[in-house]
Design a protein that fits this description.
By secondary structure, the chain is an alpha+beta fold. Helices cover about 50% and strands about 15% of the residues. The protein has a domain of about 90 residues: Chitinase A, domain 3 (Roll), CATH 3.10.50.
Length: about 600
């Protein structure tokens, strides 16, 4: 029976999804000016994929291992701040978009969530409607004018069947409508009918329709399903009540505001987008129906199509602090852009919706800043958590990038291996790499159903180097592939881990094989030099990071309160969740921290030797 290192759950989260526990502000770990409170520990432990421990590892040791991993993150973040990395352009750009998202989310909470009330009558109506399904047939039209013409004929006495017949191929089979299946207004119109009656024209995602009620079917409900029915009613009534409050706010907020966008710059941007998309499709031999996503090189090409003075021109023309073309492109890069078509009219339409949403989000963000929502404690806490995670990864990556290996070191290692010296453990994984949370959701759901990882990699993985092998890497050193190799080295064959945040997106992988035996090399050094140097460089960087973590723990006086940790009750089923943000957008519920405890024993030994 294979193990999976995650609970396959995706939910919409409020800022706090923590059950009440005494003293959530109690400090579990402290280093320098940074602390890890019980609240942060619980939130991150319970929403982070985490390997199931071997039987010999107790739940308490699992909690302690996670706390040490968080502590390492804080230590590296402290050093990064001390070095001024938090004021770098890259960090500012990344966190500008994130902060705006949290500010909008706080505005949503104030204006939408806190004002949403569900009357008892709505729930009662919902429970009643779950007991019946309404069988209908319907007329459908592509325009309001066409459907009104049909409705006029009905009102003048033409039978529904006659109009349906003249509707030709547009008249489809019957449709059975159940509670929550349609938009509220459409559902109300149908559920208010008597058998034989028809609705006035209503708009649906498929077009304009007129529904006729043919009969009502009473649904048998098993008492065992009562909880599911209650959950459905609460979900639907909450969604509909929220939608009503949102629509009221939307009309009120945007009705008296007008912000122009430079039509000239819009057209030039859209034209260049079309060029880039066409080039990607032609060069990559991508089919017309396949999705194309802009990557960092594409964004650089888009920005490079404009002269510096044009990039500084106002694109979104707010009266105060207009958004330059350069700023828009940077924000556009953070949001991402995908399309299946290179048709100019279609791309223009998609881009127009993107710009409209951007302007609306910017208006909402500015309203949030006007109210000072960026200073709310919960907003600052969430952003600090993300910033610590980002800074930690940023600084650690400099160690990995700077670890160099000479040809002499590589050759010495080569001769040791020739003589039968044990090599570093090697693993073979099957991986799905994606930059999409939606794809991650699909993969996790499929893994839960025991769908073969090779099939999933063939369908979803974006790692070009394993396309031909359906996601299988072949054996590689655990010192390769960064965190992937290190984590895979601690897994058992058949285990699945993920999603793991990596520079390219999110990695979900299954351990297909592992070997630690000696290996005699039968190829000349000249053929293996580059791969050996890469392997040794990763190993050297790993040791440097470990030693530096120990140094930082001493430098910042790391303290762990194991007693407070022991009294912290956790749900011992780590899960991956993502959070839907108010007014749109989603991200992982918490920053993802990979297991990192190898530094703890050297640190404890270092502490024990202190006078």
């Amino acid at each position: 029976m294979k193990k999976a290192f995650l609970l396959f759950t995706f939910i919409a989260l409020c800022p706090a999804l923590l059950r009440a526990q005494a003293n959530n502000d109690e400090i579990l770990a402290k280093a320098g000016s940074k602390t890890i409170t019980r609240e942060e520990f619980l939130e991150r432990f319970e929403m982070t994929p985490w390997p199931r421990p071997p039987k010999k590892v107790t739940p308490e040791n699992l909690k302690l291992g996670f706390l040490y991993s968080l502590a390492a993150e804080k230590l590296w973040a402290l050093k990064a701040q001390e070095m001024g990395l938090d004021t770098s352009g890259a960090v500012k750009m990344a966190f500008s978009s994130l902060e705006k998202m949290y500010v909008r989310d706080a505005l949503w909470k104030l204006e939408i969530k806190d004002k949403t009330v569900i009357p008892e009558s709505e729930e009662a109506k919902g429970y009643l409607r779950t007991r019946f399904a309404y069988r209908t047939d319907y007329l459908i039209a592509g325009s309001e004018k066409e459907i009104n013409s049909m409705y006029e004929r009905l009102q003048k006495g033409t039978s529904f069947d006659a109009v349906l017949k003249s509707n030709g191929s547009k008249g489809l089979d019957t449709l059975t409508v159940s509670y929550g299946m349609m938009e509220e207004a459409v559902e109300d119109a149908i559920y208010n009918l008597m058998v034989g009656q028809y609705t006035s024209p209503v708009f649906t995602p498929n077009g304009w329709c007129i529904f006729r009620l043919r009969d009502i079917v009473e649904l048998k409900q098993d008492p065992k399903d009562q909880q599911k029915v209650e959950q459905l009613v609460k979900k639907i009534t909450n969604e509909r009540a929220t939608a009503r409050v949102y629509q009221k706010f939307y009309r009120s907020f945007f009705s008296n505001q007008k912000v122009n966008v430079s039509s000239r710059l819009f057209k030039e941007l859209a034209d260049n987008l079309v060029k880039i998309i066409k080039e990607k499709k032609n060069n990559g031999r991508i089919s017309d129906s396949a999705l194309v996503s802009l990557q960092p090189p594409d964004i650089l090409k888009l920005e490079g199509a404009f002269r510096p003075e044009v990039l500084n021109m106002d694109f979104v023309q707010f009266e105060k602090n207009p958004v330059s073309l350069r700023q828009f492109i940077e924000d556009f890069a953070m949001e991402g852009f995908s399309t299946q078509t290179a048709d100019p009219r279609m791309v223009f339409g998609i881009f127009n919706r993107v710009v409209k949403k951007y302007v609306e989000n910017e208006m909402l963000t500015r309203e949030g800043y006007r109210r000072g929502l960026q200073n709310l404690p919960e907003v600052k806490r969430e952003l600090d958590m993300w910033k610590d995670n980002y800074l930690s990864q940023m600084l650690r990556s400099t160690f990995r990038d700077s670890a160099s290996v000479t040809d002499l070191e590589a050759e010495q290692y080569f001769h040791k291996v020739q003589q039968g010296a044990p090599m570093t453990a090697q693993v073979n994984i099957v991986e799905v790499l994606t930059d999409s949370l939606e794809v991650a959701e699909k993969v996790l759901d499929a893994v839960k159903k025991d769908v073969d990882m090779h099939v999933l990699a063939r369908m979803y993985s974006k790692r070009e180097s394993t396309k031909k092998t359906q996601g299988e890497t072949g054996f590689f050193s655990i010192n390769e592939y960064g965190e992937i190799g290190r984590i895979a080295g601690n897994m058992a064959i058949g285990d699945v881990y993920g999603p793991l945040k990596v520079p390219e997106g999110y990695s979900i992988f299954k351990l297909a094989g592992k070997k630690e035996d000696s290996l005699h090399v039968d190829k000349p050094f000249s053929e293996l030099r580059d791969s050996i140097k890469k392997n040794l460089s990763t190993e050297k960087a790993y040791k440097s990071v470990l030693n530096y973590t120990v140094k930082l723990a001493g430098e910042y006086g790391l303290r762990i309160d194991e007693k407070a940790l022991q009294s912290t009750q956790v749900i011992n089923v780590p899960m991956f969740t993502y959070r839907f943000m108010g007014f749109g957008g989603k991200l992982p519920a918490v920053p993802m921290t990979a297991p990192y405890t190898e530094w703890v024993s050297p640190w404890l030994e270092y502490k024990s030797n202190l006078p």
